[in-house]
Amino acid sequence: MALSILFALILAPNPSGFTEKIEARIGAQIITSTDLLLEVEALQKAALEQKSSQTLRKAAMDKLIEQALVREYLSNFQMDVSSQDVERKIDSIRTAQGIQSIEEFRQMLESQGLSFSDFRKQVKEQMRLAQFTQILQRDTLQTVDEKELQSFYKDHASQFSSNWEYELQECLIPYGESREKVTKIAKDFQNKPTTFGKCVSDFSRGPSATNKGMLGKVEGAVLRDEVSLALESKKPQQIVLIEMPGAIQLLKIISKRDLGPRSFDKVKDDIRNNILTQRMNKARQRLITDLRAKTYIKIAS
Fold this sequence. Notes:
This protein is an alpha+beta fold.
């Protein structure tokens, strides 16, 4: 609906004052008003807290410029992602999810607040980023010796001092057309844990809904940091509320127990990945900064 309204504004007479124009030039590429408005809309949906229009616009412009720089950089290596590549990737994702048809997959995405066209765009950008990362990996040291691993383990001992195991039940509620309404519903269920079954049966649209929301037992170490920290502060039968892009995730703790400190041998691979990720992020930032300096960039005033 939002996209239809936006294109109607662009193509129809212009009572609102909207004018399609070039907002920025990056090398041989351009960013249009439509590109910017759609990116602002996407960031607004994904934001976990309210942000000013000026903040969102700047973030959207920065993201679009970075994407353009990556495309420009890949073109120098005669690399790009074709429409056929994207469709094959989407098919592989759909098949891995056990979904038989594109229409079912489309409905699943929409139930989680994500349009199929937005998903396709995300997949294409992720594939470009994967190509970009492959190039960075060739230029970044990819070995970590045992001494560096031991040093990281010692310096970050508090990260490995405990490891909670949780038995969880999930209710995933898409925002749909009213984020405010869904947030109120979610908070009501958070405050009334005994009614959580109704949340799952009446509102949940996640894959776990077919299993009454049960996720089974999972170690906190494999969860995202913000989820792990939120769960660690709660007791059994309490509910954690996680705001996500397009949906609110409610996690009810059925049970929890501390498995004790994680040994070096158990976390060694995680530490190696952490160190390599830090190196890659620094290399990526250096390259993006270098590309910004070398590429013609003109933002309309």
